[in-house]
Amino acid sequence: MEEKKNIANKTATPSFVYRDGMTADNEYIEWLADVKARFRQSQIKASVRVNTTMLEFYWSVGRDLVRLRAEERWGAGVVKQFALDMRQAFPNETGFSDTNVKYMKRWYSFYFERVTKGQQVADQLAGDEKSQRLVGQIEVAEKGQQVADQLEMPESFGKVPWFHHVQIFCHCATLDEALFYINKVIEEGWSRSWLEDQIAANLFTSQGSAITNFNQTLPAPQSDLANELLKDEYNFEFLTMKAKYDEHDLEEALVANITRFLLELGKGFAYVGRQMELRMDEETTFFPDLVFYHIPQKRYIIIELKAVKFMPEFAGKLNFYVTAADKLLKCADDNPSVGLLICKTAKKTIVEWSLQDIQKPLGVATYQLQEVVERTIAELESRKNVE
User: What is the pLDDT at residue 130?
Assistant: First the structure.
Protein backbone atom coordinates (compact mmCIF):
# COMPACT_ATOMS: atom_id res chain seq x y z
CA MET A 1 0.00 0.00 0.00
CA GLU A 2 2.82 2.35 0.89
CA GLU A 3 4.57 1.56 -2.39
CA LYS A 4 1.47 2.51 -4.41
CA LYS A 5 1.27 5.83 -2.56
CA ASN A 6 4.90 6.60 -3.42
CA ILE A 7 4.26 5.79 -7.07
CA ALA A 8 1.23 8.09 -7.05
CA ASN A 9 3.31 10.88 -5.55
CA LYS A 10 5.96 10.48 -8.24
CA THR A 11 3.43 10.82 -11.06
CA ALA A 12 1.56 13.72 -9.45
CA THR A 13 4.07 16.35 -10.66
CA PRO A 14 2.79 18.20 -13.76
CA SER A 15 4.63 17.15 -16.91
CA PHE A 16 4.23 16.64 -20.64
CA VAL A 17 3.54 13.06 -21.74
CA TYR A 18 4.36 12.14 -25.32
CA ARG A 19 2.21 9.75 -27.37
CA ASP A 20 4.69 6.94 -27.02
CA GLY A 21 4.32 7.09 -23.26
CA MET A 22 7.68 8.81 -22.62
CA THR A 23 7.54 11.34 -19.76
CA ALA A 24 9.57 14.55 -20.14
CA ASP A 25 10.53 15.22 -16.53
CA ASN A 26 12.83 18.03 -15.36
CA GLU A 27 15.93 15.88 -15.61
CA TYR A 28 15.19 15.04 -19.26
CA ILE A 29 14.46 18.70 -20.09
CA GLU A 30 17.75 19.82 -18.54
CA TRP A 31 19.65 17.09 -20.38
CA LEU A 32 17.97 18.01 -23.67
CA ALA A 33 18.85 21.68 -23.20
CA ASP A 34 22.47 20.73 -22.54
CA VAL A 35 22.61 18.56 -25.67
CA LYS A 36 21.11 21.38 -27.77
CA ALA A 37 23.72 23.79 -26.44
CA ARG A 38 26.52 21.33 -27.23
CA PHE A 39 25.14 20.82 -30.73
CA ARG A 40 25.07 24.57 -31.37
CA GLN A 41 28.67 24.78 -30.18
CA SER A 42 29.62 21.92 -32.49
CA GLN A 43 27.96 23.75 -35.39
CA ILE A 44 29.99 26.85 -34.61
CA LYS A 45 33.18 24.80 -34.33
CA ALA A 46 32.40 23.04 -37.62
CA SER A 47 31.81 26.38 -39.29
CA VAL A 48 35.13 27.68 -37.95
CA ARG A 49 36.91 24.53 -39.18
CA VAL A 50 35.39 24.91 -42.64
CA ASN A 51 36.36 28.58 -42.72
CA THR A 52 39.88 27.76 -41.51
CA THR A 53 40.35 25.04 -44.13
CA MET A 54 39.21 27.35 -46.92
CA LEU A 55 41.44 30.19 -45.71
CA GLU A 56 44.45 27.90 -45.43
CA PHE A 57 43.85 26.90 -49.06
CA TYR A 58 43.54 30.55 -50.15
CA TRP A 59 46.72 31.36 -48.23
CA SER A 60 48.57 28.50 -49.94
CA VAL A 61 47.45 29.67 -53.40
CA GLY A 62 48.59 33.20 -52.64
CA ARG A 63 51.89 31.86 -51.33
CA ASP A 64 52.40 29.79 -54.50
CA LEU A 65 51.78 32.79 -56.74
CA VAL A 66 54.34 34.81 -54.75
CA ARG A 67 56.89 32.02 -54.36
CA LEU A 68 56.77 30.96 -58.00
CA ARG A 69 56.77 34.56 -59.24
CA ALA A 70 53.94 33.44 -61.46
CA GLU A 71 53.61 36.56 -63.61
CA GLU A 72 57.33 36.65 -64.35
CA ARG A 73 57.39 32.95 -65.19
CA TRP A 74 54.15 32.51 -67.16
CA GLY A 75 53.10 36.01 -68.11
CA ALA A 76 50.69 38.70 -66.91
CA GLY A 77 47.62 36.60 -67.75
CA VAL A 78 48.54 33.68 -65.50
CA VAL A 79 46.07 34.58 -62.71
CA LYS A 80 43.20 34.86 -65.17
CA GLN A 81 44.14 31.54 -66.79
CA PHE A 82 44.58 29.82 -63.44
CA ALA A 83 41.13 31.02 -62.31
CA LEU A 84 39.60 29.73 -65.56
CA ASP A 85 41.32 26.34 -65.25
CA MET A 86 40.12 25.95 -61.66
CA ARG A 87 36.53 26.84 -62.59
CA GLN A 88 36.59 24.26 -65.37
CA ALA A 89 38.00 21.60 -63.06
CA PHE A 90 35.57 22.42 -60.24
CA PRO A 91 32.45 23.92 -61.88
CA ASN A 92 30.31 23.59 -58.75
CA GLU A 93 32.76 25.38 -56.46
CA THR A 94 32.81 29.11 -55.81
CA GLY A 95 35.83 31.26 -55.05
CA PHE A 96 37.74 30.97 -58.31
CA SER A 97 36.83 34.24 -59.96
CA ASP A 98 39.71 36.33 -61.33
CA THR A 99 39.13 38.89 -58.60
CA ASN A 100 39.14 36.36 -55.77
CA VAL A 101 42.36 34.72 -56.96
CA LYS A 102 43.97 38.17 -57.11
CA TYR A 103 42.77 38.71 -53.54
CA MET A 104 44.48 35.46 -52.49
CA LYS A 105 47.79 36.76 -53.79
CA ARG A 106 47.28 40.22 -52.29
CA TRP A 107 46.37 38.69 -48.93
CA TYR A 108 49.53 36.63 -48.70
CA SER A 109 51.67 39.42 -50.16
CA PHE A 110 50.37 41.93 -47.61
CA TYR A 111 51.71 39.91 -44.66
CA PHE A 112 54.74 38.46 -46.42
CA GLU A 113 56.05 41.88 -47.43
CA ARG A 114 55.64 43.30 -43.95
CA VAL A 115 57.04 40.24 -42.20
CA THR A 116 60.13 40.22 -44.38
CA LYS A 117 60.71 43.86 -43.47
CA GLY A 118 61.26 42.67 -39.93
CA GLN A 119 58.08 43.98 -38.25
CA GLN A 120 57.52 42.13 -34.99
CA VAL A 121 54.19 40.34 -34.56
CA ALA A 122 54.94 37.91 -31.75
CA ASP A 123 52.74 39.62 -29.16
CA GLN A 124 49.81 40.06 -31.52
CA LEU A 125 49.24 36.63 -33.02
CA ALA A 126 47.68 34.93 -29.99
CA GLY A 127 50.77 32.88 -29.12
CA ASP A 128 49.80 29.75 -31.09
CA GLU A 129 52.43 27.38 -32.50
CA LYS A 130 52.10 28.70 -36.04
CA SER A 131 52.63 32.20 -34.73
CA GLN A 132 55.84 31.09 -33.05
CA ARG A 133 57.00 29.60 -36.33
CA LEU A 134 56.10 32.90 -37.99
CA VAL A 135 58.28 34.74 -35.50
CA GLY A 136 61.14 32.38 -36.30
CA GLN A 137 60.68 33.08 -39.98
CA ILE A 138 60.89 36.80 -39.29
CA GLU A 139 64.34 36.23 -37.81
CA VAL A 140 65.33 34.31 -40.92
CA ALA A 141 64.00 37.13 -43.09
CA GLU A 142 66.12 39.64 -41.22
CA LYS A 143 69.17 37.68 -42.35
CA GLY A 144 68.04 38.20 -45.93
CA GLN A 145 66.93 34.60 -46.59
CA GLN A 146 63.87 33.75 -48.66
CA VAL A 147 60.86 32.65 -46.56
CA ALA A 148 58.07 32.92 -49.12
CA ASP A 149 57.72 29.14 -49.30
CA GLN A 150 57.64 28.78 -45.49
CA LEU A 151 55.29 31.46 -44.18
CA GLU A 152 52.20 29.79 -42.74
CA MET A 153 48.83 31.30 -41.97
CA PRO A 154 48.51 32.16 -38.24
CA GLU A 155 45.87 29.99 -36.57
CA SER A 156 43.95 33.03 -35.33
CA PHE A 157 43.28 34.09 -38.93
CA GLY A 158 40.93 31.11 -39.30
CA LYS A 159 38.49 32.77 -36.92
CA VAL A 160 37.94 35.67 -39.31
CA PRO A 161 35.67 35.33 -42.39
CA TRP A 162 37.30 35.72 -45.79
CA PHE A 163 35.72 38.99 -46.83
CA HIS A 164 36.61 40.50 -43.47
CA HIS A 165 40.21 39.69 -44.36
CA VAL A 166 39.71 41.33 -47.76
CA GLN A 167 38.51 44.54 -46.13
CA ILE A 168 41.47 44.53 -43.77
CA PHE A 169 44.32 43.97 -46.22
CA CYS A 170 42.75 46.29 -48.79
CA HIS A 171 42.40 49.23 -46.39
CA CYS A 172 45.16 48.86 -43.80
CA ALA A 173 48.62 50.28 -44.31
CA THR A 174 50.60 48.52 -41.58
CA LEU A 175 50.83 45.13 -39.95
CA ASP A 176 49.89 46.60 -36.56
CA GLU A 177 46.74 48.14 -37.99
CA ALA A 178 45.68 44.92 -39.75
CA LEU A 179 46.21 42.81 -36.64
CA PHE A 180 44.33 45.35 -34.53
CA TYR A 181 41.20 44.86 -36.66
CA ILE A 182 41.65 41.10 -36.85
CA ASN A 183 41.72 40.93 -33.05
CA LYS A 184 38.66 43.19 -32.84
CA VAL A 185 36.71 40.91 -35.20
CA ILE A 186 37.68 37.85 -33.15
CA GLU A 187 37.07 39.38 -29.72
CA GLU A 188 33.93 41.39 -30.46
CA GLY A 189 32.34 39.46 -33.33
CA TRP A 190 32.18 42.40 -35.71
CA SER A 191 30.03 42.12 -38.84
CA ARG A 192 31.63 43.09 -42.14
CA SER A 193 29.63 46.32 -42.36
CA TRP A 194 30.66 47.30 -38.83
CA LEU A 195 34.29 46.51 -39.66
CA GLU A 196 34.04 48.74 -42.72
CA ASP A 197 32.60 51.55 -40.58
CA GLN A 198 35.36 51.28 -37.97
CA ILE A 199 38.12 51.24 -40.58
CA ALA A 200 36.55 54.28 -42.27
CA ALA A 201 36.39 56.01 -38.88
CA ASN A 202 40.08 55.13 -38.34
CA LEU A 203 39.47 53.41 -35.02
CA PHE A 204 43.03 52.08 -34.98
CA THR A 205 44.51 55.53 -34.47
CA SER A 206 41.66 57.08 -32.47
CA GLN A 207 41.15 54.42 -29.79
CA GLY A 208 43.28 55.02 -26.73
CA SER A 209 44.45 58.42 -27.97
CA ALA A 210 42.12 60.72 -26.03
CA ILE A 211 43.80 63.36 -23.87
CA THR A 212 43.75 62.06 -20.29
CA ASN A 213 45.46 62.36 -16.92
CA PHE A 214 45.27 58.60 -16.33
CA ASN A 215 49.04 58.18 -15.97
CA GLN A 216 49.00 60.62 -13.06
CA THR A 217 45.80 59.45 -11.35
CA LEU A 218 45.84 55.66 -11.82
CA PRO A 219 48.52 53.00 -11.20
CA ALA A 220 50.29 51.63 -14.28
CA PRO A 221 48.11 48.60 -15.11
CA GLN A 222 44.92 50.55 -14.43
CA SER A 223 45.99 53.57 -16.48
CA ASP A 224 46.77 51.45 -19.53
CA LEU A 225 43.42 49.69 -19.34
CA ALA A 226 41.49 52.90 -18.81
CA ASN A 227 43.22 54.52 -21.79
CA GLU A 228 41.93 51.70 -24.00
CA LEU A 229 38.36 52.74 -23.15
CA LEU A 230 38.49 56.14 -24.81
CA LYS A 231 38.88 57.51 -28.32
CA ASP A 232 40.13 60.92 -29.28
CA GLU A 233 37.08 61.45 -31.48
CA TYR A 234 33.63 59.85 -31.45
CA ASN A 235 31.59 59.40 -34.60
CA PHE A 236 28.03 60.62 -34.05
CA GLU A 237 27.11 60.67 -37.72
CA PHE A 238 24.24 58.29 -36.96
CA LEU A 239 22.49 61.33 -35.43
CA THR A 240 20.49 63.92 -37.34
CA MET A 241 20.88 67.27 -35.64
CA LYS A 242 19.56 70.76 -36.39
CA ALA A 243 22.04 73.46 -37.27
CA LYS A 244 21.51 75.03 -33.83
CA TYR A 245 21.55 72.48 -31.03
CA ASP A 246 22.71 72.42 -27.44
CA GLU A 247 23.91 69.79 -24.94
CA HIS A 248 20.33 68.80 -24.12
CA ASP A 249 19.53 68.16 -27.78
CA LEU A 250 22.70 66.12 -28.21
CA GLU A 251 21.96 64.10 -25.10
CA GLU A 252 18.37 63.45 -26.21
CA ALA A 253 19.56 62.24 -29.59
CA LEU A 254 22.21 59.92 -28.13
CA VAL A 255 19.78 58.36 -25.66
CA ALA A 256 17.22 57.89 -28.46
CA ASN A 257 19.95 56.03 -30.35
CA ILE A 258 21.46 54.31 -27.32
CA THR A 259 22.24 51.07 -29.16
CA ARG A 260 24.33 52.88 -31.77
CA PHE A 261 25.93 54.98 -29.05
CA LEU A 262 26.94 51.87 -27.10
CA LEU A 263 28.49 50.41 -30.25
CA GLU A 264 30.42 53.62 -30.78
CA LEU A 265 31.68 53.60 -27.18
CA GLY A 266 32.98 50.07 -27.63
CA LYS A 267 32.69 46.61 -26.14
CA GLY A 268 31.72 46.20 -22.49
CA PHE A 269 29.78 49.42 -21.86
CA ALA A 270 26.43 49.14 -20.09
CA TYR A 271 24.02 52.06 -19.93
CA VAL A 272 23.11 53.02 -16.35
CA GLY A 273 21.13 56.23 -16.76
CA ARG A 274 20.91 59.88 -17.74
CA GLN A 275 20.48 62.96 -15.61
CA MET A 276 20.72 60.85 -12.43
CA GLU A 277 19.81 63.19 -9.59
CA LEU A 278 22.72 63.88 -7.25
CA ARG A 279 21.23 65.55 -4.19
CA MET A 280 23.82 67.07 -1.87
CA ASP A 281 21.31 68.63 0.53
CA GLU A 282 17.77 70.01 0.50
CA GLU A 283 18.75 72.94 -1.70
CA THR A 284 21.61 71.65 -3.86
CA THR A 285 21.07 69.12 -6.66
CA PHE A 286 23.19 68.16 -9.65
CA PHE A 287 22.50 66.07 -12.75
CA PRO A 288 25.38 64.29 -14.53
CA ASP A 289 24.58 63.87 -18.23
CA LEU A 290 25.16 60.13 -18.74
CA VAL A 291 26.35 57.29 -16.53
CA PHE A 292 27.74 54.01 -17.87
CA TYR A 293 29.38 50.97 -16.33
CA HIS A 294 32.21 49.13 -18.05
CA ILE A 295 31.67 45.47 -17.20
CA PRO A 296 35.12 43.98 -18.03
CA GLN A 297 36.99 46.72 -16.18
CA LYS A 298 34.40 47.00 -13.39
CA ARG A 299 34.26 50.79 -13.26
CA TYR A 300 31.72 53.57 -13.70
CA ILE A 301 32.15 55.98 -16.61
CA ILE A 302 30.62 59.44 -16.17
CA ILE A 303 30.11 61.24 -19.48
CA GLU A 304 29.49 64.97 -19.83
CA LEU A 305 28.48 66.35 -23.23
CA LYS A 306 29.34 69.82 -24.49
CA ALA A 307 28.15 71.22 -27.83
CA VAL A 308 30.87 73.88 -27.65
CA LYS A 309 34.65 73.99 -27.48
CA PHE A 310 36.41 72.73 -24.35
CA MET A 311 36.68 75.18 -21.46
CA PRO A 312 38.84 74.59 -18.34
CA GLU A 313 35.87 74.88 -15.97
CA PHE A 314 34.29 71.78 -17.55
CA ALA A 315 37.02 69.61 -16.00
CA GLY A 316 36.24 70.82 -12.48
CA LYS A 317 32.58 69.88 -12.70
CA LEU A 318 33.35 66.46 -14.16
CA ASN A 319 35.91 65.87 -11.41
CA PHE A 320 33.11 66.56 -8.90
CA TYR A 321 30.83 63.99 -10.61
CA VAL A 322 33.54 61.31 -10.63
CA THR A 323 34.13 61.91 -6.93
CA ALA A 324 30.40 61.45 -6.32
CA ALA A 325 30.39 58.21 -8.34
CA ASP A 326 33.29 56.82 -6.30
CA LYS A 327 31.59 57.71 -3.03
CA LEU A 328 27.99 56.79 -3.88
CA LEU A 329 27.99 54.25 -6.74
CA LYS A 330 31.30 52.41 -6.59
CA CYS A 331 31.29 49.08 -4.73
CA ALA A 332 34.18 47.66 -2.76
CA ASP A 333 35.40 45.47 -5.65
CA ASP A 334 34.93 48.14 -8.34
CA ASN A 335 37.85 50.00 -9.86
CA PRO A 336 38.06 53.81 -9.68
CA SER A 337 35.47 55.65 -11.74
CA VAL A 338 36.50 57.57 -14.85
CA GLY A 339 35.16 60.79 -16.32
CA LEU A 340 34.86 61.45 -20.05
CA LEU A 341 34.14 64.91 -21.42
CA ILE A 342 33.01 64.89 -25.07
CA CYS A 343 33.21 68.36 -26.62
CA LYS A 344 32.72 69.81 -30.07
CA THR A 345 36.36 70.89 -30.25
CA ALA A 346 39.33 70.87 -27.88
CA LYS A 347 42.81 72.37 -27.95
CA LYS A 348 45.40 69.96 -26.61
CA THR A 349 47.43 72.43 -24.56
CA ILE A 350 44.37 73.87 -22.81
CA VAL A 351 43.09 70.37 -22.00
CA GLU A 352 46.45 69.18 -20.67
CA TRP A 353 46.82 72.23 -18.42
CA SER A 354 43.25 71.85 -17.17
CA LEU A 355 43.79 68.19 -16.21
CA GLN A 356 47.25 68.65 -14.71
CA ASP A 357 46.17 69.12 -11.08
CA ILE A 358 42.89 67.20 -11.23
CA GLN A 359 42.87 64.33 -8.77
CA LYS A 360 40.34 62.08 -10.51
CA PRO A 361 40.99 60.19 -13.79
CA LEU A 362 39.46 62.27 -16.59
CA GLY A 363 39.65 62.19 -20.37
CA VAL A 364 38.64 64.69 -23.01
CA ALA A 365 37.54 63.79 -26.54
CA THR A 366 35.72 65.42 -29.42
CA TYR A 367 32.90 64.28 -31.69
CA GLN A 368 31.83 64.62 -35.29
CA LEU A 369 28.34 64.57 -36.74
CA GLN A 370 26.34 65.75 -39.72
CA GLU A 371 24.35 68.88 -39.06
CA VAL A 372 21.10 69.35 -40.95
CA VAL A 373 20.09 72.95 -41.57
CA GLU A 374 16.36 73.51 -41.20
CA ARG A 375 15.01 76.08 -43.65
CA THR A 376 12.19 78.27 -42.56
CA ILE A 377 9.09 78.81 -44.65
CA ALA A 378 10.20 82.38 -45.28
CA GLU A 379 13.56 81.18 -46.65
CA LEU A 380 11.84 78.72 -48.95
CA GLU A 381 9.42 81.35 -50.13
CA SER A 382 12.26 83.79 -50.73
CA ARG A 383 14.14 81.22 -52.79
CA LYS A 384 11.01 80.45 -54.74
CA ASN A 385 10.49 84.12 -55.58
CA VAL A 386 14.07 84.49 -56.72
CA GLU A 387 13.73 81.50 -59.01
Answer: 43
